[in-house]
Amino acid sequence: xxxxxxxxxxxxxxxxxxxxxxxxxxxxxxxxxxxxxxxxxxxxxxxxxxxxxxxxxxxxxxxxxxxxxxxxxxxxxxxxxxxxxxxxxxxxxxxxxxxxxxxxxxxxxxxxxxxxxxxxxxxxxxxxxxxxxxxxxxxxxxxxxxxxxxxxxxxxxxxxxxxxxxxxxxxxxxxxxxxxxxxxxxxxxxxxxxxxxxxxxxxxxxxxxxxxxxxxxxxxxxxxxxxxxxxxxxxxxxxxxxxxxxxxxxxxxxxxxxxxxxxxxxxxxxxxxxxxxxxxxxxxxxxxxxxxxxxxxxxxxxxxxxxxxxxxxxxxxxxxxxxxxxxxxxxxxxxxxxxxxxxxxxxxxxxxxxxxxxxxxxxxxxxxxxxxxxxxxxxxxxxxxxxxxxxxxxxxxxxxxxxxxxxxxxxxxxxxxxxxxxxxxxxxxxxxxxxxxxxxxxxxxxxxxxxxxxxxxxxxxxxxxxxxxxxxxxxxxxxxxxxxxxxxxxxxxxxxxxxxxxxxxxxxxxxxxxxxxxxxxxxxxxxxxxxxxxxxxxxxxxxxxxxxxxxxxxxxxxxxxxxxxxxxxxxxxxxxxxxxxxxxxxxxxxxxxxxxxxxxxxxxxxxxxxxxxxxxxxxxxxxxxxxxxxxxxxxxxxxxxxxxxxxxxxxxxxxxxxxxxxxxxxxxxxxxxxxxxxxxxxxxxxxxxxxxxxxxxxxxxxxxxxxxxxxxxxxxxxxxxxxxxxxxxxxxxxxxxxxxxxxxxxxxxxxxxxxxxxxxxxxxxxxxxxxxxxxxxxxxxxxxxxxxxxxxxxxxxxxxxxxxxxxxxxxxxxxxxxxxxxxxxxxxxxxxxxxxxxxxxxxxxxxxxxxxxxxxxxxxxxxxxxxxxxxxxxxxxxxxxxxxxxxxxxxxxxxxxxxxxxxxxxxxxxxxxxxxxxxxxxxxxxxxxxxxxxxxxxxxxxxxxxxxxxxxxxxxxxxxxxxxxxxxxxxxxxxxxxxxxxxxx
Length: 985
Known about the structure:
Blueprint: H1 3-20, H2 27-35, H3 46-54, H4 58-73, H5 88-98, H6 102-111, E1 121-124, H7 133-138, H8 141-152, H9 157-171, E2 186-190, H10 197-211, E3 215-220, H11 224-239, H12 241-245, E4 286-288, H13 320-323, E5 328-333, H14 337-348, E6 359-364, H15 376-380, H16 388-399, E7 403-409, H17 413-416, E8 431-434, E9 441-442, H18 465-469, E10 470-473, H19 481-500, E11 511-516, H20 521-538, H21 543-564, H22 574-588, E12 595-598, H23 603-608, E13 619-624, E14 637-642, H24 649-654, E15 660-661, E16 670-674, E17 677-679, E18 683-685, H25 687-708, H26 723-728, E19 746-750, H27 766-782, E20 788-791, E21 797-806, H28 807-816, H29 826-835, E22 844-851, E23 859-860, E24 868-869, E25 871-872, E26 875-877, E27 880-881, H30 890-896, H31 907-912, E28 917-926, E29 944-950, E30 963-966
Parallel strand pairs: 2-7, 2-8, 3-5, 3-6, 4-5, 6-7, 10-16, 11-13, 11-14, 12-13, 14-16, 22-28, 25-28
Antiparallel strand pairs: 1-8, 9-15, 17-18, 19-30, 20-21, 21-22, 23-24, 26-27, 28-29
Helix pairs in contact: 1-2, 1-4, 3-6, 4-9, 8-10, 9-10, 14-16, 19-20, 19-21, 19-22
């Protein structure tokens, strides 16, 4: 086929697919229709199509990749309502609709694989669907421009389709901007730290203004530096050159006075271009009410800046005949009292139009400054007060009755604990959306070995995230600061080596190291001086320096890169890297000082910093505190040195600046972190374990949201106002008995058929521990000998003692147990009580007591039992333990209980499985090295009888919601469940 024929085929396919819009249709018919007038003789056979794909026709493949991903990712597909997005079933439905042959399907499947990217998790109130596929497709000017920009930046079709779906999930839950009745919606979008939340709200903004929202207020940080970052991002990727110029002529210097970016931004040519003023191309313009350098001060042209021309003056602005011809206004403002006060004051002077104006308020880092932190006792006493920013946001919502509020954060707990009954506050009463972990993102799973099946002694840089990326700082290791500085130089040299080998330059434009030890500004100055001195004395380019770097390369970077660099070029030896070390040092010390302190309290301070990731290449060591831990994106971050302690979970999580996207240098990322940091009086904290605990809490929160996002009978199981009690069970630093109006609901029951349940709130008092051990004594005595082998189809196996116990006997035991926080287990226990009355009921439970076989095992007799293996665990979150179970022990229990996700077991496991049978995994736990009696016994008062359980998969009623709530009964706060006489002994 000639080039002309190939171009003709591409033109026909493009036209045919475009004509289908959002629904796949009979492709051969649509292609024939597209070819009918201009190319009636074109070869439209599947054989030719298949040959072009196999032959590497990139343009044709890209076209089909975009459309297949769009159809794969469609969350609601009327043309295939019974298939879930991103599944083989959905792709098959697409092929059926297109009427494609089997051979062509195979080629397309190989070229465009079904993406495994997760979709967003949505907790929502019922809403009236208005943002239909037809409505969305009718006006797409700014969304398509943004979509093109993302593809130009290198986003894959799957990533764009994922963002399309996630942003749509937000927009469709806003109010219809055309509807006659004014209605506000409030929501919260939860992302990961430095994971692309800005991309999501840029997509939401694009779709919202396309749909008819005509005022967008973005609350972008508490410092102008952060605000300016957000302003530039929106200007570059959405607003575009023509709207920024506002009709000014690029060739006329005088007309460019006062216009930002032109002439002083190296990436001006990369800003979105709409090919002319949007208003001349059938769309509408965007007027900016703030610029990169100027926050909101007052409406620049007076109140007229918010006057909207109406084509039909007798109709309101929100009427379609007016709305879609009016320009949109966009502003990015600081969360600053003076700035927001001016905005509120100006809006109060505008009469009439505000009630007709569809507006969108996007609150970036919405858990910072926006939440009302006034004393709850004042609320109870009728002296309602709001903090400054919270009050001003509330006033904005009052002034703009058609305003929609969407908060964005990576640490959502402050937002979901806002009082749901306060209609003027920012509680996300309409929806809560958890964004999926994006492809290419380095998050907690890339620094922690969460639930790894690999034993500690068998972990290597190839199978352990901790060994690959984390370097602990202990008393015995010294502070390792010099090693971290050497790692910074060495990783910079590797980047230059890769750049010379052809890796794209954009991946290595910035190279930074973050040092975070203290919140105190005086400490920052001293630390910066120390690092500067060490830098100049390090002499990495001397013989001794090269020897030190060579040793670090051989012991650390070479093995990690060999295991994890994938297809990236890596030097075979330090000698190949050596020429790039000098250049790396030159770039880092280019201004005479390799260190930059970032800790100012004012915009004036940051204006003096030469820290501009947009207009210059930054190769620096950054020393700072809080200002480096919230909203500030440290580009090119490769080495982190972190030793600051805090007792606030959200603060700790926001300090995780080492999370983010690291294209081209994931294998070079290192985290030097304190493992024995002093805080308080003679206390030490393992910061690495603290991060893991917080991350587990957040992941558990996301998992539970995903679990209850599924609709039952077409209705939500869980609404946003019911999320707070869901969270409170897993955050011990948030006290449920606090004098606060937020906790007005209590989680009573969690139904978990076929789901692993892992309690962690075991008692701390010795009398309670002894009491619990006594309750388990009949079970311990019933364990059969000798140990048996439980295994799975993957070959994993372990030794265990097993027995069975009737359902009623287990309930009696569980009801007598004592807890440090009864509310953590009581919803699960309530479910087990209810399950006993099902038809058919739960029959019995298999008890599994895993036994260690290594020579280092610890065994003890418990209240006269045979010797049993003891597990060593620690309480990581107040009185709560971290994970109790071992991953390799779970599959057998899940399989016995009939969990659909479990792998097949060995012959014994399969023989134990029953339709109405659950499984209990028992772990006698010690918190420190045990003291045993002469007969090998342990004092039960020093033992935690921990357990996990899996209720039978068939123990839930079909279509039944998994949650049940009630008003809190403060008089029963110490009970695990409501008293039930029928199950007491």
